[in-house]
C-alpha cells in the first residue's frame, strides 16, 4: 500500500530545503522547531529514505541527501497541483469559475436575461456561460437530455421528471404598425380584430381554449421566426398577437396593445430535473433569480 503523504509535511520539507534551516521553516509554518523536525522524520519514515544528511556541529545548514534532492522536485509538483485544485474548486464553490449552461425561450433571453446575467456574473471572468435560445419544446428537451443545467420556459409536462417553478407572468397583446387604425387603442378585444389580416406565430397557441381561439384559425399567414414576423408587420403586411415579453424593448414603428377580452396570461418559469442537484454556479443563479423576484429559495430546493 502506498504511503499517505500529507501536504503539510511536504510544505515543511520544501521550506526547510529552500530556507536552509529548521528554525526558518518553523517560523514560516508558525510551528516550533521540534514540531518541524518531527514532521520531517515522519515523512522520511513514510518514504523509507532520509531526506537530509545527518547533522553535525560543524554544519549549520541542513543538506539534502541525493534522495532528498530528487524528491524536492516531486514535492513541489505535488504542492503546486494541490494548491491549484484547491483554488479552482474554491472558485467553483463560489460560482466564480466553471461553465453555466442555460436554455431559454427567446422572450426572456432577450428581455430579462441580459440584465440578470450581468448582475449575477459581476467580475467573475472565469465563469463561462452558454445560453441556448429556443422555443419551449426545445428548452424542455435540452433539460430532459441534461444538455443544460436548467431551462426557462412557459411549457412543461406535469407528469414528467421536469419540475416547473413559476417566476414571471406574461400577458398577450396585439402587435401592429403605429400607422394602423388599432394603434391608438389603449386595450383591445378580440372581436375588434375580425376582418384584419392576421399573422400567426409560435405563441399563437396561447389563444387555444379561449374565446379568441378562432383568431388562430383565421390567420392568413404563419411566421415562426420573430425577426421575420416583426419585419412583416413593420412592412404593413398584417397584425399579430404576442406575449408582452416577446415584444422588443426597442419597438421602432410597432405598437403593443393589451388584449383585454379575453385576458390571456402565461406563466414563465424555471424548468429543471426533479430530484437532481444543480451544479454550483447553476444553483447560485437559480437562487439569484428567485431572490430577484422576491421568492424564497428554500421553498424550491
From TrEMBL:
Annotated GO CC locations: cytosol
UniProt feature coiled coil, ranges: none
InterPro entries: HTH-type_LysR_regulators, LysR_HTH_N, LysR_subst-bd, WH-like_DNA-bd_sf, WH_DNA-bd_sf
GO MF annotations, alphabetized: DNA binding; DNA-binding transcription factor activity
SUPFAM superfamilies (UniProt xref): Periplasmic binding protein-like II, Winged helix' DNA-binding domain
Keywords: DNA-binding, Transcription, Transcription regulation
Domain HTH lysR-type intervals: 5-60
Residue ranges crossing the lipid bilayer per the database entry: none
Domain of life: Bacteria
CDD domains: PBP2_LTTR_like_4
Pfam families from the UniProt entry: HTH_1, LysR_substrate
Family per similarity comment: Belongs to the LysR transcriptional regulatory family.
Protein name: LysR family transcriptional regulator
Organism from which the protein derives: Metapseudomonas lalkuanensis
Amino acid at each position: 500500500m502506498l504511503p499517505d503523504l500529507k501536504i503539510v509535511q511536504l510544505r515543511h520539507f520544501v521550506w526547510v530545503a529552500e530556507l536552509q534551516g529548521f528554525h526558518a521553516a518553523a517560523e514560516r509554518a508558525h510551528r516550533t522547531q521540534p514540531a518541524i523536525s518531527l514532521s520531517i522524520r515522519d515523512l522520511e519514515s513514510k518514504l523509507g529514505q532520509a531526506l537530509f544528511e545527518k547533522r553535525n556541529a560543524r554544519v549549520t545548514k541542513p543538506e539534502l541527501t541525493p534522495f532528498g534532492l530528487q524528491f524536492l522536485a516531486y514535492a513541489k509538483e505535488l504542492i503546486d497541483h494541490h494548491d491549484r485544485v484547491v483554488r479552482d474548486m474554491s472558485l467553483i464553490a463560489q460560482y466564480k469559475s466553471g461553465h453555466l449552461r442555460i436554455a431559454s425561450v427567446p422572450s426572456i433571453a432577450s428581455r430579462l436575461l441580459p440584465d440578470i446575467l450581468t448582475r449575477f456574473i459581476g467580475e467573475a471572468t472565469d465563469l463561462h456561460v452558454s445560453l441556448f435560445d429556443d422555443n419551449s419544446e426545445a428548452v424542455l428537451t435540452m433539460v430532459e437530455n441534461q444538455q443544460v443545467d436548467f431551462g426557462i420556459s412557459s411549457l412543461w409536462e406535469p407528469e414528467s421528471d421536469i419540475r416547473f417553478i413559476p417566476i414571471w407572468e406574461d400577458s398577450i397583446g396585439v402587435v401592429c404598425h403605429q400607422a394602423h387604425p388599432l394603434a391608438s387603442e389603449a386595450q383591445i378585444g378580440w372581436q375588434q380584430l375580425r376582418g384584419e389580416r392576421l399573422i400567426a406565430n409560435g405563441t399563437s397557441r396561447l389563444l387555444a381554449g379561449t374565446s379568441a381561439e378562432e383568431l388562430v384559425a383565421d390567420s392568413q399567414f404563419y411566421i415562426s421566426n420573430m425577426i421575420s414576423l416583426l419585419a412583416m408587420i413593420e412592412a404593413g403586411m398584417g397584425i399579430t398577437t404576442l406575449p408582452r415579453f416577446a415584444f422588443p424593448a426597442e419597438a421602432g414603428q410597432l405598437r403593443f396593445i393589451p388584449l383585454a377580452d379575453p385576458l390571456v396570461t402565461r406563466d414563465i418559469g424555471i424548468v429543471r430535473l426533479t430530484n437532481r442537484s444543480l451544479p454550483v454556479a447553476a444553483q447560485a443563479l437559480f437562487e439569484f433569480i428567485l431572490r430577484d423576484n422576491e421568492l424564497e429559495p428554500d421553498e424550491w430546493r
